[in-house]
């Protein structure tokens, strides 16, 4: 309850001076015991953490936010989606995909801890960006492989050809 990010089983085992298997068994036994309480224990992003129970979310949100909403704009969500699915990716590539300058949006995402620098692109020297573990935590994902597939939302090949043809006309 006092950690800022999920704690790994290895860290818990080390602190408690028990084996990792004992920690895993204890955590898995604890999960169902919290189902009818105000919080739940979840395995997220390679570690474990307590979260407020979804049934209590309205009360917790009101308490924490005190009427202040701090949501991402549509532009920030779109930029974050491009980074999440194409990472590591340069700012220029994100701008090209979105068709607009994303410099201000990128600063916002970095400031909020959702995106971070990852390295440098060899050919151009551009800084590459990727999502953070905080991004996974906020979305309730264990890893990037838990992101929903994009294929069901894309047009089929015939539809794509029609779209491309309409763009070149």
Task: Tell me what the structure shows.
It comes from Candidatus Planktophila dulcis. It is a single chain. With 169 residues, the protein is of the alpha+beta class. It contains eight helices and five strands. The strands form two sheets. A three-stranded antiparallel β-sheet has the order 3-5-4. Helix 4 crosses helix 6.
Average residue-wise pLDDT: 84
Could you tell me the number of beta strands? 5
- Biggest sheet: strands side by side, in what order? 3-5-4
What gap, in angstroms, lies between the N and C termini? 59 Å
Strand content: 5-15%
Which consecutive residue ranges, at least 5 long each, have pLDDT under 50? none
| Molecular shape | globular
Category by helix and strand content:
alpha+beta
Query: H/E order of the elements?
Result: HHEEHHEHHEEHH
Helicity level = 40-55%
Main sheet record: 3 strands, antiparallel
Helix count, per DSSP?
Answer: 8
Rg, rounded, reads: 20 Å
């Amino acid at each position: 309850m006092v950690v800022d990010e999920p704690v790994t089983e290895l860290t818990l085992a080390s602190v408690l001076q028990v084996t990792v298997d004992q920690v895993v068994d204890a955590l898995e036994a604890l999960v169902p015991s919290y189902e009818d309480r105000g919080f739940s224990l979840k395995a997220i992003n390679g570690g474990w953490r307590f979260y407020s129970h979804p049934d209590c979310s309205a009360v917790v949100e009101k308490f924490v936010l005190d009427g202040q909403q701090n949501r991402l704009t549509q532009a920030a969500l779109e930029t974050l989606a491009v980074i999440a699915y194409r990472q590591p990716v340069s700012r220029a590539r994100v701008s090209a995909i979105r068709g607009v300058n994303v410099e201000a949006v990128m600063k916002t995402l970095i400031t909020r801890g959702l995106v971070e620098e990852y390295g440098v692109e060899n050919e151009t020297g551009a800084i590459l960006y990727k999502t953070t573990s905080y991004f996974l935590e906020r979305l309730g994902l264990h890893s990037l492989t838990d992101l929903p597939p994009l294929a069901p939302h894309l047009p089929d090949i015939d539809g794509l050809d029609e779209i491309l043809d309409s763009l070149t006309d």
